[in-house]
């Protein structure tokens, strides 16, 4: 089952979720952990969680072409890189957040097709706002850019801290997971990849 986004009027859009179902489930979880879902502080929690999920998982109702709407022809065929795009996603194993930054770069094709810089950050959100694993999110961002812009190459590097590894489980605060996806020229040319990596790391 999939749900559409309600409209484009909010910055991220909200998914149309099955609100009563989430409310029932959250109420059940509260009971299962021994809480009283009818105490004052928890009364509105099920509906709050439903609203939060509609925002947190909005990417499930979006596709790359919903956000990569502006494609210009420009006289530029050199690398474009947006660094340090803040990422908030949800680990699909534990449904707790992972967060950090994404760096997204591409080399336009011979026609000089480029997109708006903000669209790269919006594309990150399309895939971050889903139940995710970091590796898949990284590849999806790269593949979507390849498909829509048909550039000479794409590089995506994501650095995140997973709360499932810090607040629970193995409890290793500060541990960062770094994933990358390289396509086209970034994969075939060591020099191009090294140039991008030096821009990404040069902070
Ligand atoms: N590869 C990958 N693993 C992830 C990601 N997010 C969470 N995980 C891991 O998913 C694994 C799930 O392991 P399980 O043994 O099934 O679950 P668990 O018993 O809760 O594991 P622990 O976290 O070690 O307590 C854990 O090792 C997590 O660290 C991710 O984005 N990518
Ligand atoms: Zn997890």
Principal-axis shape equals elongated
Give a quick account of the main beta sheet: strands, pairing sense, barrel closure.
5 strands, mixed
Q: Mind telling me which CATH architecture of the largest domain this is?
A: 2-Layer Sandwich
In N-to-C order, the SSE pattern is HHHEEEEHEHEHEHH
In angstroms, what is the radius of gyration?
A: 19 Å
Q: Total helix count? A: 8
CATH topology of the largest domain: GTP Cyclohydrolase I, domain 2
N-to-C span:
43 Å
Unreliable runs = 7-11
The largest sheet has its strands arranged as 5-2-3-6-7
The number of domains is: 2
Query: What is the level 1 CATH name of the largest domain?
Result: Alpha Beta
CATH-level-4 superfamily name of the largest domain: GTP cyclohydrolase I, C-terminal domain/NADPH-dependent 7-cyano-7-deazaguanine reductase, N-terminal domain
EC number: 3.5.4.16
Enzyme class: hydrolase
InterPro entries: GTP-CH-I_C/QueF, GTP-CH-I_N, GTP_CycHdrlase_I, GTP_CycHdrlase_I_CS, GTP_CycHdrlase_I_dom
Protein name: GTP cyclohydrolase 1
Describe this structure as you would to a colleague.
The protein has 203 residues and is α+β, with helices and mostly antiparallel strands. The chain folds into two domains: 19-59, GTP Cyclohydrolase I, Chain A, domain 1 (Orthogonal Bundle), CATH 1.10.286.10; 69-201, 2-Layer Sandwich (GTP Cyclohydrolase I, domain 2), CATH 3.30.1130.10. The protein has eight helices and seven strands, in the order H-H-H-E-E-E-E-H-E-H-E-H-E-H-H. The strands form two sheets. A five-stranded mixed sheet has the order 5-2-3-6-7. A two-stranded antiparallel ribbon has the order 1-4. A hairpin with a 5-residue loop joins strand 2 (80-91) and strand 3 (97-107). The longest helix has 16 residues, at 134-149. The radius of gyration is 19 Å and the shape is elongated. The structure holds guanosine-5'-triphosphate (GTP) and zinc ion.
